[in-house]
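Hey all, quick one. A colleague (J.T.) asked me to put the copper (II) ion job into the tracker so the inputs and the C-alpha coordinates live in one place instead of scattered across chat threads. No bug as far as I know, just bookkeeping. Sequence used:
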Amino acid sequence: MADTKKDFIDQRLQDLNNDGVDRRGFLKCMAWAGTGLVWTLSGGVPVSRAFAKSAGEHADKGADFTFVQISDSHIGFSKPANQDVTATLQTAINKINKMPNKPDFLIHTGDLSQLSKPSEFDTLDQVLRGASPKQTYFVPGEHDMLTDNGEQYLQRYGKGTKGAGWYSFDHKGVHFVGLVNVVNLKAGGLGALGHEQLEWLEDDLKGRSASTPIVLFAHIPLWTIYPDWGWGTDDSEQALSYVKRFGSVTVLNGHIHQVMQKIEGKVSFHTAMSTAFPQPAPGTAPSAGPMKVPADQLRRVLGITDVNYLVSGSSLAIIDSPLDSTSAQASGNGGGTDTAAMASGGAATDSATEVKIDNFAFTPGAIKVKPGTQVTWINHDDIPHTVDSTQGKFKSAALDTDQKFEYRFTEPGEYPYYCRLHPKMTGSIIVQS
Ligand SMILES: [Cu+2]
Protein backbone atom coordinates (compact mmCIF):
# COMPACT_ATOMS: atom_id res chain seq x y z
CA MET A 1 0.00 0.00 0.00
CA ALA A 2 2.77 2.41 0.94
CA ASP A 3 4.46 1.73 -2.40
CA THR A 4 1.30 2.41 -4.33
CA LYS A 5 0.96 5.71 -2.54
CA LYS A 6 4.57 6.58 -3.19
CA ASP A 7 4.21 5.70 -6.86
CA PHE A 8 1.13 7.84 -7.06
CA ILE A 9 2.92 10.82 -5.56
CA ASP A 10 5.97 10.32 -7.77
CA GLN A 11 3.68 10.16 -10.75
CA ARG A 12 1.93 13.28 -9.63
CA LEU A 13 5.13 15.24 -9.21
CA GLN A 14 6.25 14.08 -12.61
CA ASP A 15 2.94 15.25 -14.07
CA LEU A 16 3.30 18.60 -12.43
CA ASN A 17 6.75 18.99 -13.88
CA ASN A 18 5.78 18.23 -17.43
CA ASP A 19 4.77 21.77 -18.26
CA GLY A 20 1.10 21.00 -18.50
CA VAL A 21 1.46 19.12 -21.77
CA ASP A 22 -1.39 16.72 -21.86
CA ARG A 23 -1.31 13.17 -23.09
CA ARG A 24 -4.31 11.10 -23.84
CA GLY A 25 -5.26 8.52 -21.25
CA PHE A 26 -2.75 9.92 -18.82
CA LEU A 27 -3.81 10.74 -15.30
CA LYS A 28 -3.03 14.32 -14.62
CA CYS A 29 -3.33 16.17 -11.38
CA MET A 30 -3.16 19.87 -11.20
CA ALA A 31 -2.70 22.41 -8.53
CA TRP A 32 -5.05 24.86 -10.03
CA ALA A 33 -6.25 27.93 -8.24
CA GLY A 34 -9.78 28.67 -9.30
CA THR A 35 -12.97 28.72 -7.38
CA GLY A 36 -15.28 27.86 -10.21
CA LEU A 37 -14.87 26.37 -13.63
CA VAL A 38 -16.11 28.34 -16.58
CA TRP A 39 -17.24 26.14 -19.43
CA THR A 40 -17.41 27.58 -22.92
CA LEU A 41 -19.14 25.59 -25.61
CA SER A 42 -18.03 26.25 -29.16
CA GLY A 43 -19.47 24.04 -31.85
CA GLY A 44 -20.71 21.75 -29.10
CA VAL A 45 -17.28 21.07 -27.62
CA PRO A 46 -16.89 22.19 -24.02
CA VAL A 47 -13.69 24.03 -23.16
CA SER A 48 -12.95 24.82 -19.56
CA ARG A 49 -10.95 27.57 -18.03
CA ALA A 50 -10.48 29.25 -14.70
CA PHE A 51 -11.89 32.65 -13.91
CA ALA A 52 -10.08 35.42 -15.72
CA LYS A 53 -7.74 37.51 -13.62
CA SER A 54 -9.49 40.62 -14.76
CA ALA A 55 -12.79 40.94 -16.48
CA GLY A 56 -12.39 41.52 -20.19
CA GLU A 57 -9.51 39.11 -20.74
CA HIS A 58 -10.41 36.13 -22.91
CA ALA A 59 -13.97 37.25 -23.37
CA ASP A 60 -15.18 33.99 -24.89
CA LYS A 61 -15.64 35.43 -28.34
CA GLY A 62 -17.78 33.30 -30.59
CA ALA A 63 -18.80 30.91 -27.84
CA ASP A 64 -22.16 29.21 -28.10
CA PHE A 65 -22.68 29.66 -24.40
CA THR A 66 -20.90 29.42 -21.09
CA PHE A 67 -21.80 27.97 -17.74
CA VAL A 68 -19.98 27.89 -14.42
CA GLN A 69 -19.43 24.95 -12.12
CA ILE A 70 -19.12 25.60 -8.39
CA SER A 71 -18.85 22.90 -5.76
CA ASP A 72 -18.55 21.92 -2.11
CA SER A 73 -19.78 25.13 -0.47
CA HIS A 74 -20.21 23.31 2.89
CA ILE A 75 -22.32 26.17 4.27
CA GLY A 76 -22.26 25.82 8.05
CA PHE A 77 -18.63 24.67 8.23
CA SER A 78 -16.74 26.96 10.64
CA LYS A 79 -13.59 25.07 11.60
CA PRO A 80 -10.05 26.49 11.32
CA ALA A 81 -9.69 25.47 7.65
CA ASN A 82 -12.15 28.27 6.80
CA GLN A 83 -14.22 30.07 9.41
CA ASP A 84 -16.36 31.93 6.89
CA VAL A 85 -17.43 29.70 4.04
CA THR A 86 -20.36 31.98 3.23
CA ALA A 87 -17.93 34.82 2.49
CA THR A 88 -15.81 32.71 0.15
CA LEU A 89 -18.93 31.52 -1.67
CA GLN A 90 -20.01 35.14 -1.96
CA THR A 91 -16.62 36.02 -3.44
CA ALA A 92 -17.08 33.30 -6.03
CA ILE A 93 -20.53 34.64 -6.93
CA ASN A 94 -19.15 38.19 -7.18
CA LYS A 95 -16.57 36.93 -9.66
CA ILE A 96 -19.24 35.16 -11.67
CA ASN A 97 -21.29 38.35 -11.75
CA LYS A 98 -18.34 40.25 -13.18
CA MET A 99 -17.79 37.84 -16.09
CA PRO A 100 -17.97 39.74 -19.37
CA ASN A 101 -20.18 37.09 -20.98
CA LYS A 102 -22.98 36.17 -18.66
CA PRO A 103 -23.10 32.40 -18.10
CA ASP A 104 -26.42 30.79 -19.00
CA PHE A 105 -26.54 28.89 -15.71
CA LEU A 106 -24.58 27.46 -12.78
CA ILE A 107 -23.99 23.83 -11.90
CA HIS A 108 -23.40 23.04 -8.23
CA THR A 109 -21.85 19.60 -7.82
CA GLY A 110 -22.89 18.95 -4.24
CA ASP A 111 -22.11 19.41 -0.56
CA LEU A 112 -24.15 22.58 -0.56
CA SER A 113 -24.35 22.32 3.24
CA GLN A 114 -22.17 20.94 6.02
CA LEU A 115 -24.88 19.27 8.12
CA SER A 116 -28.06 19.38 5.98
CA LYS A 117 -29.54 22.03 8.27
CA PRO A 118 -32.42 24.15 6.95
CA SER A 119 -30.56 27.32 7.98
CA GLU A 120 -27.53 26.24 5.93
CA PHE A 121 -29.64 25.64 2.83
CA ASP A 122 -31.33 29.02 3.45
CA THR A 123 -27.96 30.78 3.52
CA LEU A 124 -26.87 29.08 0.31
CA ASP A 125 -30.14 30.07 -1.38
CA GLN A 126 -29.69 33.64 -0.27
CA VAL A 127 -26.16 33.91 -1.69
CA LEU A 128 -27.20 32.24 -4.96
CA ARG A 129 -30.11 34.64 -5.34
CA GLY A 130 -27.48 37.32 -5.86
CA ALA A 131 -25.89 35.45 -8.78
CA SER A 132 -26.50 36.87 -12.23
CA PRO A 133 -27.40 33.45 -13.71
CA LYS A 134 -30.84 32.79 -12.29
CA GLN A 135 -30.75 29.04 -12.84
CA THR A 136 -28.60 26.63 -10.81
CA TYR A 137 -28.63 22.90 -11.44
CA PHE A 138 -27.73 20.83 -8.37
CA VAL A 139 -26.74 17.33 -7.43
CA PRO A 140 -26.45 16.34 -3.75
CA GLY A 141 -23.27 15.54 -1.87
CA GLU A 142 -23.15 13.23 1.15
CA HIS A 143 -23.34 16.26 3.47
CA ASP A 144 -26.74 17.15 2.00
CA MET A 145 -28.24 13.79 3.04
CA LEU A 146 -27.22 13.69 6.69
CA THR A 147 -30.40 13.92 8.69
CA ASP A 148 -33.29 12.72 6.57
CA ASN A 149 -31.84 10.63 3.76
CA GLY A 150 -32.03 13.64 1.49
CA GLU A 151 -35.74 14.40 1.79
CA GLN A 152 -35.17 18.06 2.47
CA TYR A 153 -32.66 18.31 -0.36
CA LEU A 154 -35.22 16.82 -2.73
CA GLN A 155 -37.92 19.22 -1.59
CA ARG A 156 -35.67 22.21 -2.12
CA TYR A 157 -33.53 21.30 -5.11
CA GLY A 158 -34.93 18.12 -6.60
CA LYS A 159 -38.32 19.14 -8.02
CA GLY A 160 -39.11 17.06 -11.06
CA THR A 161 -36.14 14.73 -10.57
CA LYS A 162 -36.17 10.94 -10.33
CA GLY A 163 -35.14 8.69 -7.45
CA ALA A 164 -32.67 10.38 -5.12
CA GLY A 165 -32.48 13.43 -7.39
CA TRP A 166 -31.14 12.43 -10.81
CA TYR A 167 -32.35 14.14 -14.00
CA SER A 168 -31.34 15.37 -17.44
CA PHE A 169 -31.95 18.48 -19.49
CA ASP A 170 -30.99 19.93 -22.86
CA HIS A 171 -29.45 23.31 -23.43
CA LYS A 172 -28.63 24.70 -26.89
CA GLY A 173 -27.98 21.26 -28.32
CA VAL A 174 -26.01 19.87 -25.38
CA HIS A 175 -27.46 17.07 -23.22
CA PHE A 176 -26.75 17.43 -19.49
CA VAL A 177 -27.25 14.61 -16.97
CA GLY A 178 -27.11 15.12 -13.19
CA LEU A 179 -26.35 11.87 -11.32
CA VAL A 180 -26.50 10.99 -7.62
CA ASN A 181 -23.76 8.74 -6.22
CA VAL A 182 -23.98 9.50 -2.49
CA VAL A 183 -26.89 7.32 -1.28
CA ASN A 184 -27.08 3.69 -0.14
CA LEU A 185 -23.32 3.36 0.08
CA LYS A 186 -22.08 -0.07 1.14
CA ALA A 187 -19.52 -0.79 3.85
CA GLY A 188 -16.04 -0.85 2.37
CA GLY A 189 -17.24 0.54 -0.96
CA LEU A 190 -16.97 3.79 -2.90
CA GLY A 191 -19.67 6.08 -4.26
CA ALA A 192 -22.51 4.24 -5.99
CA LEU A 193 -25.16 5.00 -8.60
CA GLY A 194 -27.23 1.85 -8.12
CA HIS A 195 -29.19 -0.32 -10.50
CA GLU A 196 -32.28 1.85 -10.82
CA GLN A 197 -30.34 4.97 -11.76
CA LEU A 198 -28.14 3.07 -14.22
CA GLU A 199 -31.24 1.69 -15.95
CA TRP A 200 -32.67 5.18 -16.14
CA LEU A 201 -29.41 6.56 -17.56
CA GLU A 202 -29.22 3.91 -20.25
CA ASP A 203 -32.77 4.71 -21.23
CA ASP A 204 -32.21 8.47 -21.11
CA LEU A 205 -29.29 8.27 -23.55
CA LYS A 206 -30.71 5.58 -25.82
CA GLY A 207 -32.47 7.59 -28.52
CA ARG A 208 -29.88 10.34 -28.80
CA SER A 209 -27.61 10.93 -31.75
CA ALA A 210 -23.93 10.11 -31.20
CA SER A 211 -23.08 13.66 -32.25
CA THR A 212 -24.91 15.18 -29.27
CA PRO A 213 -22.37 16.59 -26.80
CA ILE A 214 -22.96 14.98 -23.39
CA VAL A 215 -22.13 16.49 -20.01
CA LEU A 216 -22.46 14.19 -16.97
CA PHE A 217 -22.13 15.68 -13.51
CA ALA A 218 -22.19 14.12 -10.04
CA HIS A 219 -20.68 14.77 -6.61
CA ILE A 220 -18.16 11.94 -6.09
CA PRO A 221 -15.79 11.49 -9.04
CA LEU A 222 -17.06 9.06 -11.68
CA TRP A 223 -13.51 7.84 -12.22
CA THR A 224 -11.19 6.22 -9.73
CA ILE A 225 -8.86 8.82 -8.29
CA TYR A 226 -7.87 7.34 -4.93
CA PRO A 227 -9.92 4.41 -3.65
CA ASP A 228 -8.18 4.39 -0.23
CA TRP A 229 -9.98 7.66 0.48
CA GLY A 230 -13.19 6.61 -1.25
CA TRP A 231 -12.50 8.91 -4.21
CA GLY A 232 -14.25 6.94 -6.91
CA THR A 233 -17.59 5.33 -7.77
CA ASP A 234 -18.09 1.55 -7.69
CA ASP A 235 -20.39 1.29 -10.69
CA SER A 236 -19.14 4.23 -12.78
CA GLU A 237 -17.75 1.86 -15.43
CA GLN A 238 -21.25 0.81 -16.33
CA ALA A 239 -22.48 4.39 -16.53
CA LEU A 240 -19.55 5.29 -18.78
CA SER A 241 -20.25 2.32 -21.06
CA TYR A 242 -23.51 4.06 -22.02
CA VAL A 243 -21.70 7.18 -23.26
CA LYS A 244 -18.93 5.41 -25.21
CA ARG A 245 -20.65 5.91 -28.57
CA PHE A 246 -20.92 9.69 -28.19
CA GLY A 247 -18.39 11.97 -29.85
CA SER A 248 -17.94 14.42 -26.98
CA VAL A 249 -18.41 13.51 -23.33
CA THR A 250 -17.49 15.71 -20.39
CA VAL A 251 -17.72 14.41 -16.82
CA LEU A 252 -17.77 16.91 -13.95
CA ASN A 253 -17.39 16.17 -10.24
CA GLY A 254 -16.64 17.81 -6.91
CA HIS A 255 -16.00 16.12 -3.55
CA ILE A 256 -12.20 16.11 -3.52
CA HIS A 257 -11.76 19.92 -3.24
CA GLN A 258 -8.99 20.16 -5.80
CA VAL A 259 -8.68 20.04 -9.55
CA MET A 260 -7.78 16.88 -11.38
CA GLN A 261 -8.26 16.03 -14.98
CA LYS A 262 -8.07 12.95 -17.15
CA ILE A 263 -8.77 12.51 -20.83
CA GLU A 264 -9.63 9.07 -22.13
CA GLY A 265 -10.49 8.97 -25.82
CA LYS A 266 -13.51 11.19 -26.31
CA VAL A 267 -14.28 11.39 -22.61
CA SER A 268 -12.75 14.08 -20.44
CA PHE A 269 -13.05 14.03 -16.65
CA HIS A 270 -12.68 17.07 -14.42
CA THR A 271 -13.06 17.76 -10.74
CA ALA A 272 -13.69 21.23 -9.33
CA MET A 273 -12.28 23.02 -6.34
CA SER A 274 -14.35 23.80 -3.30
CA THR A 275 -15.59 27.28 -2.50
CA ALA A 276 -15.05 26.40 1.20
CA PHE A 277 -11.77 24.66 2.06
CA PRO A 278 -9.00 22.66 0.38
CA GLN A 279 -8.25 18.97 0.93
CA PRO A 280 -4.84 17.28 0.66
CA ALA A 281 -3.71 15.69 -2.57
CA PRO A 282 -4.18 11.90 -2.65
CA GLY A 283 -1.75 10.07 -0.38
CA THR A 284 -0.05 13.22 0.93
CA ALA A 285 -1.76 13.19 4.35
CA PRO A 286 -3.04 10.50 6.74
CA SER A 287 -6.56 11.04 5.45
CA ALA A 288 -8.84 13.24 3.46
CA GLY A 289 -10.43 16.13 5.32
CA PRO A 290 -10.32 19.90 5.69
CA MET A 291 -6.80 21.15 5.27
CA LYS A 292 -5.74 24.17 7.26
CA VAL A 293 -3.44 26.45 5.34
CA PRO A 294 -2.00 29.73 6.62
CA ALA A 295 -4.65 32.43 6.51
CA ASP A 296 -2.89 34.41 3.82
CA GLN A 297 -2.91 31.32 1.61
CA LEU A 298 -6.51 30.24 2.01
CA ARG A 299 -7.94 32.42 -0.68
CA ARG A 300 -5.22 31.31 -2.97
CA VAL A 301 -6.06 27.65 -2.69
CA LEU A 302 -9.66 28.60 -3.14
CA GLY A 303 -8.36 30.68 -6.00
CA ILE A 304 -10.19 33.85 -5.35
CA THR A 305 -7.70 36.64 -5.25
CA ASP A 306 -5.21 35.88 -7.95
CA VAL A 307 -6.25 33.60 -10.71
CA ASN A 308 -4.16 33.24 -13.82
CA TYR A 309 -5.05 30.84 -16.51
CA LEU A 310 -3.93 29.23 -19.70
CA VAL A 311 -6.01 27.36 -22.16
CA SER A 312 -4.30 24.66 -24.17
CA GLY A 313 -6.59 22.85 -26.55
CA SER A 314 -9.55 21.60 -24.61
CA SER A 315 -7.68 21.12 -21.36
CA LEU A 316 -6.93 23.20 -18.34
CA ALA A 317 -3.32 23.96 -17.69
CA ILE A 318 -1.50 24.59 -14.45
CA ILE A 319 -1.83 28.22 -13.63
CA ASP A 320 -0.15 28.52 -10.30
CA SER A 321 3.03 27.14 -8.87
CA PRO A 322 2.34 23.52 -7.86
CA LEU A 323 5.19 23.65 -5.37
CA ASP A 324 3.39 26.34 -3.45
CA SER A 325 0.36 24.18 -3.02
CA THR A 326 2.56 21.26 -1.96
CA SER A 327 4.18 23.29 0.77
CA ALA A 328 0.77 24.44 1.91
CA GLN A 329 -0.09 20.80 2.51
CA ALA A 330 2.78 20.36 4.91
CA SER A 331 0.89 22.35 7.50
CA GLY A 332 -2.24 20.37 6.76
CA ASN A 333 -3.97 17.49 8.27
CA GLY A 334 -0.91 16.18 10.12
CA GLY A 335 -0.44 14.63 13.51
CA GLY A 336 -2.70 11.74 12.74
CA THR A 337 -2.42 8.04 13.21
CA ASP A 338 -0.70 5.78 10.76
CA THR A 339 -3.65 4.48 8.79
CA ALA A 340 -1.61 1.86 6.96
CA ALA A 341 -0.48 0.29 10.21
CA MET A 342 -3.96 0.46 11.58
CA ALA A 343 -5.57 -1.24 8.64
CA SER A 344 -3.22 -4.22 8.96
CA GLY A 345 -3.59 -4.54 12.72
CA GLY A 346 -5.80 -7.26 14.16
CA ALA A 347 -8.31 -7.12 16.96
CA ALA A 348 -7.12 -5.48 20.12
CA THR A 349 -7.26 -7.84 23.06
CA ASP A 350 -8.04 -5.35 25.81
CA SER A 351 -11.54 -4.41 26.82
CA ALA A 352 -11.44 -0.84 25.61
CA THR A 353 -14.87 0.65 25.40
CA GLU A 354 -14.05 3.81 23.54
CA VAL A 355 -13.51 4.07 19.81
CA LYS A 356 -11.99 7.25 18.47
CA ILE A 357 -12.97 8.61 15.09
CA ASP A 358 -9.91 10.41 13.82
CA ASN A 359 -8.51 11.17 10.39
CA PHE A 360 -11.30 9.24 8.69
CA ALA A 361 -10.66 6.03 10.65
CA PHE A 362 -12.08 4.14 13.65
CA THR A 363 -9.37 3.53 16.28
CA PRO A 364 -8.98 0.80 17.35
CA GLY A 365 -10.42 -0.70 14.19
CA ALA A 366 -11.54 -3.83 16.03
CA ILE A 367 -12.08 -4.41 19.74
CA LYS A 368 -13.10 -7.37 21.88
CA VAL A 369 -15.52 -6.68 24.71
CA LYS A 370 -17.54 -8.73 27.22
CA PRO A 371 -21.32 -8.98 26.89
CA GLY A 372 -23.02 -6.00 28.54
CA THR A 373 -20.26 -3.55 27.61
CA GLN A 374 -21.23 -0.11 26.44
CA VAL A 375 -19.07 1.15 23.61
CA THR A 376 -18.68 4.86 22.98
CA TRP A 377 -17.58 6.39 19.69
CA ILE A 378 -16.29 10.00 19.69
CA ASN A 379 -15.72 12.00 16.53
CA HIS A 380 -12.51 14.04 16.66
CA ASP A 381 -12.58 15.06 12.98
CA ASP A 382 -13.74 18.39 11.53
CA ILE A 383 -16.12 16.44 9.30
CA PRO A 384 -19.23 14.55 10.38
CA HIS A 385 -19.17 10.74 10.45
CA THR A 386 -21.65 8.02 11.39
CA VAL A 387 -21.51 4.62 13.07
CA ASP A 388 -23.77 2.19 11.20
CA SER A 389 -24.03 -1.53 11.84
CA THR A 390 -23.44 -3.43 8.59
CA GLN A 391 -26.11 -5.88 9.83
CA GLY A 392 -28.60 -3.10 10.59
CA LYS A 393 -28.33 -3.54 14.39
CA PHE A 394 -27.44 0.04 15.32
CA LYS A 395 -27.21 3.33 13.52
CA SER A 396 -25.99 6.69 14.80
CA ALA A 397 -27.08 10.10 13.67
CA ALA A 398 -24.45 12.18 11.88
CA LEU A 399 -21.84 12.94 14.55
CA ASP A 400 -20.32 16.38 14.26
CA THR A 401 -16.98 17.23 15.90
CA ASP A 402 -16.79 15.97 19.52
CA GLN A 403 -20.19 14.32 19.36
CA LYS A 404 -20.63 10.80 20.73
CA PHE A 405 -22.57 7.67 19.95
CA GLU A 406 -23.10 4.89 22.50
CA TYR A 407 -24.35 1.35 22.12
CA ARG A 408 -24.53 -1.49 24.65
CA PHE A 409 -23.64 -4.95 23.33
CA THR A 410 -25.49 -7.74 25.14
CA GLU A 411 -25.24 -10.77 22.84
CA PRO A 412 -21.94 -12.49 21.92
CA GLY A 413 -21.00 -12.21 18.26
CA GLU A 414 -19.19 -10.05 15.77
CA TYR A 415 -20.63 -6.65 14.91
CA PRO A 416 -19.05 -5.02 11.86
CA TYR A 417 -19.90 -1.38 11.25
CA TYR A 418 -19.01 1.50 8.90
CA CYS A 419 -19.56 5.20 8.28
CA ARG A 420 -22.43 5.64 5.84
CA LEU A 421 -20.93 8.91 4.58
CA HIS A 422 -17.46 7.45 4.06
CA PRO A 423 -18.07 3.73 3.56
CA LYS A 424 -14.33 3.04 3.31
CA MET A 425 -14.29 3.64 7.08
CA THR A 426 -15.02 0.30 8.73
CA GLY A 427 -14.62 -1.24 12.16
CA SER A 428 -15.75 -4.19 14.22
CA ILE A 429 -16.82 -4.99 17.77
CA ILE A 430 -16.33 -8.59 18.88
CA VAL A 431 -18.44 -9.56 21.89
CA GLN A 432 -17.12 -12.62 23.77
CA SER A 433 -17.71 -13.84 27.29
CU1 LIG B 1 -17.28 9.30 7.78
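Adding what we noticed when we looked at it: The CA atoms of residues 69 and 390 lie 35 Å apart. The pocket of copper (II) ion is lined by residues 385, 419, 421-422, 425 (CB under 6 Å).
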